[in-house]
Amino acid sequence: MATDQSYKKSIETAINNPKLSKALHLFGDAYLIARENAYSGLNFDAMRQELAAIKDDVRIRRKELLAEFIKNAEAAGSIVFVAKDVKEANDYVIKLAEKKGAKLIAKSKSMVSEEAHFNKAMEKAGIRASETDLGEWIVQLAGQRPSHMVMPAIHMFKEEVAELFGKEVGKTLNPEIKTLVDVARERLRQEYFNADIGLTGANFLIANTGGIGLVTNEGNARLCATLPDTHVVFAAIHKLLPTVEDAIKLTRLLPRNATGQLLTSYVTWIKGTVPCDGKTKEQHIVLIDGGREALYESKACQDALRCIQCGACANVCPVYQTVGGHVFGSIYISAIGIILTAFYEGLDKAKELTRACIGCRSCTAVCPSNIDLEEIILHLRTQVTSEYGMGVIKNVAFKAVMKNRGLFHSMVKAASKLQRPVTHPSRTGDEKRVIRHLPMHFMDRDFTQWRDLPSVAETSFRDQFPNIRQSVSDPKYTVGFFVGCGADFVYPEVGTSLIKVLNALNVDVVFPQKQNCCGIPALYSGDTETGVYLAKQNVEAFTEAKVDYIISICPTCTMAIKRDFVERLADHPGWSAKALALSDKTMDASAFLENVLGASEKLGNLSGNGSVTYHDSCHLKRGNNVFKEPRALLGASGYEISEMKNSDRCCGFGGTYSFLSHPQISKQITHDKVEAIQNVNVKTVAMDCPGCMIMLKGAMGKANPNIRCAHTVELMAEALDKK
Amino acid sequence: MPNNTHLSRFMEMARRVGAEVTQLENLQDAAKYVVTNSSGTTLVPRTALSEKHDLRTVLADAGVDVYDGDFRKAGHFPGAGVTFCNFAMADTGTVVLESTAEDVRLSTTLPEKHFVLVDPEIILEDNLAAAVPMTKIHTGNEPKFVAYVTGPSRTADIERVLTIGCHGPRELHILVIEGLSSDLYEI
């Protein structure tokens, strides 16, 4: 429990430091623009698929490539040592230093040396390791650890740096960045000249040459590799690449994705023992496993070793931007950090981190190695849940209640009556009741202080459906409607709107009553058992219905049917074929309306419905690749779209994330979204996800009740009514 | 420039990352440029091309303080380094120097300013086109040190503010001159 408490406290401390969060937001915004420019004229998807294929080939042939690398490096004079863990690696360098009587190591950036707590290990052995990368040096002087892979001191401000450097050089320094950089330049130049050993990392190891590569900007790695007569390369085994050409392909992605540069100032290719001060340099290459072989062997997680350590998954992560890398990470931070921490430091060390991911998939969208980070994190969360449990609330909710469709639905019905004492008419009066305050004060801070909670609908969609009259004489298609919990019990009007729109386009809708929750809340909490059970219920319900398509107005449910049901039921005989068949004909409503029915062309003459802004839901854009369609549909329905800043940034909902695991982080992320919406100056924000609706209606209810949050199909139905 | 279609792209991209790019007639003009734009001890490594073009003499004749001793003893911050390069890459504005000889490394890492001479003939279209020469350079068991240099040394480690001149040269001057070399394997 102690860890749990200190973790919560670290979140609180980070949230109470808005200066850091603000800096990370500014960085995130600038990064997106720089990155987009850097890829201009290039096909990012093709490039990253190619890199992923190279890295997968390395995984498969790693033993052969490692042997080839060692053979070639040794032929060029290098001494290669393979360390099974970081301790062996440290011990090798200590022994080498002792043999040479070395007292000072000038060191450029190496992430695996962070893993090894290299500097501390050297200090214990009486050797001083001096960081020369500017950010690493700052962090070393401050006695901290890096909070970002590429920019280690991104959490610090120039005033703090001036104080640290001032102490180091014994005078008061102006907190002016140029001055501070010059101080480091001057001071560290002595270290390269005085050092007995120069240590660098490696961005890649080339099997067919035995050479290493360094991708850097400052020029310190070149000096570390040049001035001292001994060069130690501290590198992890997954940095292997087959050929020079593969390395060139990596260098086309790494700087573009890390900092939006086409190439860093320096890319340095070093092979063997080059001349040094009239003699030949001594070069030691320490290749470290440190848990990577186990990660390579994990089918579910092995893709993580495709990582080229660009740090982009942090740059775009709303959780990272809110709390920083010291909270959301360990040695490695953000999405990739969760996975690597689990493997290199142990699942126990990663258990809070696995839950801190909000699941928005923004990391997956920018990953240059095409790693589905979110999916791997979900897998780890399942492991954490099976090892450490998921907490009493979720246990009762998922296992006892949701699996039992009858019980679940009658409990929701009861809730719609029981909530009466706490609901109020919403502030605008034209919509239904909301929960503005909870009677339990201890919950108020996380739940209703900064958002209204939606009330459960008087009559769920499933109970309304039998009374909806559809008049489609000769339907073009019959579709099965997968309503999802949000629209079923909270926003049934989204379901009725969809039927109105579909009917107008000559499509008949059936509603299989045996359908249940898609199971994502259970799956995302690591409860696979409930997830599989619910998948089967739904597959059965929709297979029986014999429809042309299955349509959902919730992108998470759509993803569940399209992806998760297939994966979860893959090993269940009799189920996997059915799940696959359903997956093929399942679509999000906007995608179906636009891409199958051509709705925007058919509706095309509506106008004058005013301005709206559009919020891209995480799972719609990055899970289903749908973002043009709703804009086309709204446009055709007569709405003019004014884009908000970062329209595809998460709204902060994340299902149980915003209620149970991390409401305080959600609150900050939601605040950003509310601000972006308010800055557009429109009266309506459209979206395609009931989860986002819960979050944004709730937050807008407190921030500005005059701005309406609506589902795209609701706005379409209203436009049709006016026609 | 009749012989290289990649020249204008190379110049544009190099300028974008903060390099000074100047087209000159001959090495004498280059020497005048170095005199005008730098001062102090100047490291000029003896390489195949510098010997062939007698670069050290040309620079010294123009008044450049060409350093004569052991480059490691030229001080922590020599004024300038002047080198040729093997080839360049247009898509990123990069110059590539086979720097196995230690003096090439010292001349391009320690000085405040780096002047590099580029023949338009050896500008490749892009990084991918460099796969052939890079592979060839690395074939065999000989130790090799190859440096890609793209603009001056830079950092953004303090408050993400781009700052030029961290640990490497503060300025990179690219001097484009025809007729220096058409051999990608010579520096």
Rg of chain A, Å, rounded: 28 Å
Shape of chain A: elongated
**Regions with little confidence, pLDDT below 50 for 5+ residues of chain B:** none
Count of structural domains of chain A: 3
Tell me the fraction of residues in β-strands of chain A, as a range: 5-15%
Looking at this structure, what is the CATH superfamily of chain B? Answer: NagB/RpiA/CoA transferase-like
What class would the helix/strand composition of chain A place it in?
Answer: alpha/beta
Largest interface: A-B, 70 and 51 residues
Order of helices and strands of chain B: HEHEHHEEEHEEHEEEE
Number of strands of chain B: 11
Order of strands across the main sheet of chain B? 1-11-6-3-2
Specify the biggest β-sheet of chain B.
Answer: 5 strands, parallel
Q: What average pLDDT do the residues of chain A reach?
A: 93
Q: Tally the helices of chain A: what do you get? A: 37
Task: Please compute the radius of gyration of chain B using only Cα atoms.
Answer: 16 Å
Q: Overall pLDDT of chain B, averaged? A: 96
Helix content of chain A: 40-55%
The major beta sheet of chain A can be summarized as: 6 strands, parallel
| C-alpha geometry of chain B | globular
Protein name (chain B): L-lactate dehydrogenase complex protein LldG
InterPro entries (chain B): FTHF_cligase-like_sf (IPR024185), LUD_dom (IPR003741), NagB/RpiA_transferase-like (IPR037171)
Organism (chain B): Desulfopila aestuarii DSM 18488
Domain LUD (chain B): 8-177
Lay out the secondary structure.
The complex is a heterodimer of chains A (723) and B (187).
Chain A: H1 2-15, H2 18-38, H3 44-60, H4 62-75, E1 79-83, H5 86-100, E2 104-107, H6 111-115, H7 118-124, E3 128-131, H8 134-141, H9 158-169, H10 177-194, E4 197-200, E5 204-206, E6 211-216, H11 220-226, E7 230-236, E8 240-241, H12 244-259, E9 266-271, E10 275-276, E11 279-280, E12 282-288, H13 292-297, H14 312-315, H15 318-323, H16 334-344, H17 347-356, H18 362-366, H19 373-388, H20 392-402, H21 405-418, E13 423-425, E14 433-435, H22 441-447, E15 453-454, H23 461-464, E16 477-482, H24 484-490, H25 492-504, E17 507-510, H26 520-524, H27 528-545, E18 549-552, H28 555-568, H29 576-584, E19 586-588, H30 589-596, H31 599-603, E20 611-614, H32 618-624, H33 628-636, E21 640-641, H34 656-661, H35 663-680, E22 684-687, H36 690-703, E23 708-711, H37 712-722
Parallel strand pairs in A: 1-12, 2-3, 2-4, 4-7, 5-8, 7-12, 16-17, 16-18, 18-19, 20-21, 20-22, 22-23
Antiparallel strand pairs in A: 5-6, 6-9, 10-11, 13-14, 14-15
Helix pairs in contact in A: 2-12, 3-12, 9-10, 16-17, 16-19, 17-19, 24-25, 25-37, 27-28, 28-29, 28-32, 30-33, 35-36
Chain B: H1 7-16, E1 20-23, H2 27-37, E2 42-43, H3 48-52, H4 55-61, E3 80-84, E4 87-89, E5 94-98, H5 102-109, E6 113-118, E7 123-124, H6 131-137, E8 144-149, E9 154-155, E10 163-164, E11 171-176
Parallel strand pairs in B: 1-11, 2-3, 3-6, 4-7, 6-11
Antiparallel strand pairs in B: 4-5, 5-8, 9-10
Helix pairs in contact in B: 2-4
Organism (chain A): Desulfopila aestuarii DSM 18488
InterPro entries (chain A): 4Fe4S_Fe-S-bd, 4Fe4S_Fe_S_CS, Cys_rich_dom, FTHF_cligase-like_sf, Helical_ferredxn, LUD_dom, LutB/LldF, NagB/RpiA_transferase-like
GO biological process, one term (chain A): lactate metabolic process
